[in-house]
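A.,

Following up on our hallway conversation. Structure tokens first:
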């Protein structure tokens, strides 16, 4: 499911940005995905084994710093936005200046598993199934973002793309006031032409979730 979801995401990104060269570029991207598969799994294991419950501010930032280093190496301009004013750890923001449409890629760094939870470690159940706190919701999605950007760079197309990445640190337990906690995400959304969320969907790599139920109170 992990690789299927990544290829689906890449398909959407490339559909919007590469037009006539999709076929040849897709082949390069798929090769790059395959080449970095083991590296991506190691990254996923590393971040899953760091507790980043919403109220574990140090852990949330530690996960954010790991992704920040990866994005720095890929040529993104990154920053950590401190969340003190809304009572949470903070957010990771990364931007890559290019041309054409602006893509907003959204993830989050926190999980529902706080330090007191007994569920803390990454585990391979078999050769194709893994479990751990935040594997699906959503450190797996964050790793997909990193690997997608790596594949685009390896394929030689990232340099021309306009991308904003926002990984929030309080998705599972929002900070207050909410207008401050969501300001960076809203600011990015206002300039984006296309937004993609990387949280797990219905498990079918042929589909993407375009809407979901929600609640308010």
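Then the amino acids I'd put at each of the 217 positions:
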């Amino acid at each position: 499911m992990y690789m299927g979801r990544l290829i689906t995401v890449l398909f959407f990104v490339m559909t919007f940005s590469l037009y006539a060269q999709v076929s040849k570029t897709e082949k390069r991207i798929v090769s790059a995905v395959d080449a970095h598969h083991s590296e991506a799994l190691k990254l996923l294991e590393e971040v899953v084994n760091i507790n980043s419950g919403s109220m574990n501010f140090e852990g949330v930032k530690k996960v954010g710093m790991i992704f920040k280093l990866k994005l720095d190496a890929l040529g993104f301009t990154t920053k950590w936005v401190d969340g003190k004013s809304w009572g949470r750890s903070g957010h990771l923001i990364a931007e890559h200046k290019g041309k054409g449409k602006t893509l907003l890629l959204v993830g989050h760094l926190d999980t529902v598993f706080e330090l007191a939870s007994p569920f803390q470690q990454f585990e391979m159940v078999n050769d194709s199934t893994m479990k751990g706190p935040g594997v699906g919701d959503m450190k797996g999605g964050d790793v997909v973002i990193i690997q997608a950007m790596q594949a685009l760079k390896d394929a030689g197309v990232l340099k021309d793309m306009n991308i904003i990445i926002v990984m929030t640190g309080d998705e599972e337990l929002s900070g207050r006031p909410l207008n401050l906690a969501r300001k960076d995400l809203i600011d990015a959304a206002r300039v984006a032409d296309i937004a993609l969320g990387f949280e797990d969907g219905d498990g079918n790599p042929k589909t993407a979730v375009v809407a979901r139920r929600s609640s308010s109170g």
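DSSP finds seven helices and seven strands in the chain. Curious whether your intuition agrees with the design.

B.
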